[in-house]
Amino acid sequence: MDKSRRNFLKGSAGIGTLAAFKLQAGANTADLLGKESKKVASVCEMCSSRCPIEVRVEDGKGVFIQGNPKFGNKTSVCARGGAGVNQLYDDQRLVKPLIRVGARGEGKWKEVSWEEAFKFAADKLAEISEKYGPQSVVFTSKASENHNQMINFACAYGSPNIYSHWSCCPVAYRIALPHTFGSDMQRDYGDAKYIVNFGHNLFEGIDISKTKKLAKTAAKKDAKLLVLEPRFSVIAAKADEWLPVKPGTDLAFVMALIHVWIRDGKYDKEFVEKFTTGIEQVIEATKETTPKWQESITGIKAADVERIADEIWAAAPKVIIDWGHKTTTTRAEYQRTRAIAIANALMGNVEKKGGIYYSKDSKVFNKLCKEDLFPTIADPDKNFKIPKTARIDGCGEEGSPNFFMPRKHGVLMEIPKAILSEKPYPVKGWVSTRFNHLINVADTNTTLKAIEKLDFIMVTDIYMSDFANLADVVFPEASYLERDESIQNKGGTAPGFVMRNKVVEPIGGTKSAYEIFRELARVMKIDELYTWKDINEFRMQQAKGDAELIANLMKDGYVTWKVPKVYYLEKENVAKFVEKYPVAAEFVDENGQMSSQMKCKTPSGKIELFSEQVEKVFPGEGCINANDMDVYNGHKYCLTSGKIATHTNGHTQNVKILNEMTKESPLWISPNTAKAEGLKTGDLVLVKNEFGEQKVKVFVTEGIRDDTLFVYHGFGHARSGMKRAEGLGMNDSVLLDPKAGAVCATMVTNIGVDIVKI
Fold it and tell me: How far apart are CA 212 and CA 67, in angstroms?
């Protein structure tokens, strides 16, 4: 550590670690910090939710984070969000570029200048391109602004092999919902009367504004929250009813609900006839999926399914059957999500208050108002096009099992296979920006073998992660509190924008992804498609010269306009909107709805309960089916995983205060299982299957099924420079099967395992 950095951290350590947490715990910040402190509005990035925040800065140092009072989360932040300054001033974070000098993974590095690091990376990438072609380098990132900038560079370089975290996390709903509704959908938690939740644990995988709305609804006496999940999670504890469903069988439960509704005629026939296509195929697909049929699959009594089906119909359309993130996944994850989407449509809850709705941005509101009342943003990166070269995973290509996967997101599980097989061509380089493949993607052991065959690995990260430790060059990325970024749409029920603003100057001269990839492209002389030199030019191009919009976003971080909410099929809301914007009356039907705006971006223009485009590519998958739900694969137990409120995947385990709050993740097992295996809380076991094995301590609890095991994901770090987190807990990805699910190539996060006492 250089002297200037050491002195800086020494002077701010008290503020950047435990002191910050204590301030978050309820102190009066104005009294503690004085009235001269400035506030900077920005956007959090301690998880993927990206909540708008406000940061108090004292003497040039960030000291206190709260929610942005101008946004729906008000002043609230979660534990992770409050710990942002802890990461900022962490003496274990990277602040200087590093080049490897020992064997790969040995942990021997030399600090170099930015110029030397850029030249080193540029030379290596140029060498691979000349020898094997640019397609021989893969690029991985979490979906974010980093991902966008990585895409630009990869396109300029000439590689089509671009990846985000989609395939290991949200891909099922990202593909299944557009196949059904034509786009992603939003959920009106705050006004719902009945919510069916399949482990979408917003009380641990926190998104503040959504979590608060769900919490308020769960507390209402006239609303019901039903949770189906194999363990008694935090959201299950908040539910009116918890059903410990067998892992992977959510699909059977939903198909049984659909069977009951169709059998009894308890679905919105008028909505289905007017706005959907494919009900005949759904009727045929569910004629045998009775409540009794699902009982032996899910473990849920047939009588409960009958009762719940009636309860949901009675509450419709103010109901939400929540698709969530991946919770009890199987290779049938696509069909599970499709079944949930269809269940919502049958309840006629689309574009209804308390149901689900299409997100509406400035373009939509300008169309309804027949005037450009609200600003829209441009895309400065529109000239970058992903090369048409064949990808190693076949995404978007005819005849490929990954046909429906977007080429900018890819299938992460295919990367190690392609490296080892050298098919369809050799892969010799890997560029990763803040994505820890070894923790987040299935079959870690195969990935480690594949890495041995690479000529070059480049990583940008905040910490020396497991993957970064295997790199040839590591660029220290500025934390989210040290960088300016672009304008992002935050539309929903009103037009809005957010923008991340730099809170403090970067420690040690660290740089953002915008700066790193832009400069690397310049050094390599492949930057002719870039229309901007820095983030200020980028923002101005986005805003189309609207300096007022940028100024407001720099000041407030979040900008919105007060407009009446529009649900196209909710007459009262439509009337209020037309009252304020009379020209919108043109879009109103005789019955007071805006039915004309329900044209979906699907091939039929309707909500597709049966998808001809999917059926054509994957026969048998165009309609829901009950195939491939097994997650045990002959093993005694199913290992499941999920999020904890104090950590984000594999990203935050080394943040000091969060590490002190939750150091490791024990293995949840039931008392009956513990007795059968001769175990007690604190015992060490070996969890194993055909893909690998992991050691972990046991936690005995009533809150889980006897046939199910559970760990919080993101632990078990090894070979890294994350000293606080090193070796604590287990890495569940070591045990996961890399074989993807049908249609949407989802990574299956449930896996059959056995356990042995050590």
Answer: 13
Q: Are 438 and 444 in contact (CB under 8 A)?
A: yes
- Say what the pTM is: 0.93
Q: For residues 155 and 139, give the distance between their C-alpha atoms in angstroms, rounded to a whole number.
A: 10
- Report residue 720's pLDDT band, with 50, 70 and 90 as the boundaries: confident
Cβ 478 vs Cβ 512: under 8 Å: yes
Map tokens 């942990």 to a residue.
Answer: 107
Contact 167, 409 (CB under 8 A): yes
Integer CA distances (angstroms), 8 to 11, 200, 508, in order? 5, 41, 10
pLDDT of 504-531, one tens digit each? 999 999 999 999 999 999 999 999 999 9
**Which pLDDT value is given to residue 301?**
98
Q: What is the pLDDT of residues 489-501, one digit of tens each?
A: 998 889 999 999 9
Within 528-625, where are the H helices? 535-542, 547-556, 571-580, 612-617
**From CA 368, how far away is CA 360, in angstroms rounded?**
11
Written as six digits, the tokens of 608 are 């597709």
C-alpha distance from residue 540 to each of 379, 486, 536 (Å)? 11, 9, 6
Distance separating alpha carbons of residues 556 and 542, to the nearest angstrom: 18
Q: How many CB atoms lie within 10 A of CB 490?
A: 21
* pLDDT of amino acid 4: 35
Asked if 489 and 499 touch (Cβ cutoff 8 Å), the reply is: no
Residue 38 backbone dihedrals phi, psi, to 5 degrees: -95, 160
Comparing 161-165, 520-524, 717-721, the range with the smallest average pLDDT is: 717-721
Long-range contact set of residues 520-524: C-beta below 8 Å, sequence gap at least 24: 520/118, 520/121, 520/122, 520/153, 521/152, 521/153, 521/156, 521/157, 523/118, 523/119, 523/122, 524/122, 524/125, 524/126, 524/157
CA distance 493 to 356: 11
β-bridge partners, 497: 489, 559
| Alpha carbon distance 354, 754 (integer Å) | 43
Query: pLDDT averaged over the chain?
Result: 93
Q: How does 586-601 read in b/e, with b if 16+ C-beta sit within 10 Å?
A: ebbeeeebbbebbebe
Measured distance CA(165)–CA(441) in Å, rounded: 9
C-alpha gyration radius of the chain:
26
| DSSP string for residues in 32-65 | HH-TT-EEEEEE--SSSS--EEEEEEETTEEEEE
Say if CB 718 and CB 466 are below 8 A apart.
Answer: yes
The C-alpha atoms of residue 434 and residue 431 are separated, in whole angstroms, by: 10
User: Which candidate, 76, 64, 66, places its Cα nearest to that of 12?
Assistant: 64
| Of 601, 139, 743, nearest in space to 409 by CA | 139
Q: Which of 336, 47, 342 is nearest to 172 (CA)?
A: 336
Q: What distance in Å separates the CA atoms of residue 519 and residue 722, rounded to the nearest whole number? A: 28
Token pair recorded at residue 662: 């939750």
Residue 12 and residue 150: Cα distance in Å, rounded? Answer: 33
Q: Is 716 helix (H, G, I), strand (E, B) or coil?
A: coil
- One-letter amino acid of 663: K
CB-count burial class (<10 Å; 0-12, 13-18, 19+) for 102: exposed
CB 496 within 8 A of CB 489: yes
pLDDT band for position 274 (cuts 50, 70, 90): very high
CA dist., res. 188 & res. 660, Å (int): 36
Average pLDDT for 192-198: 97
- Rounded to whole angstroms, how far apart are CA atoms 10 and 28? 25
The pLDDT tens digits of the residues spanning 612-624 come to 999 999 999 999 9
- Helices 291-298 and 250-264 cross at an angle (nearest 10°) of 170
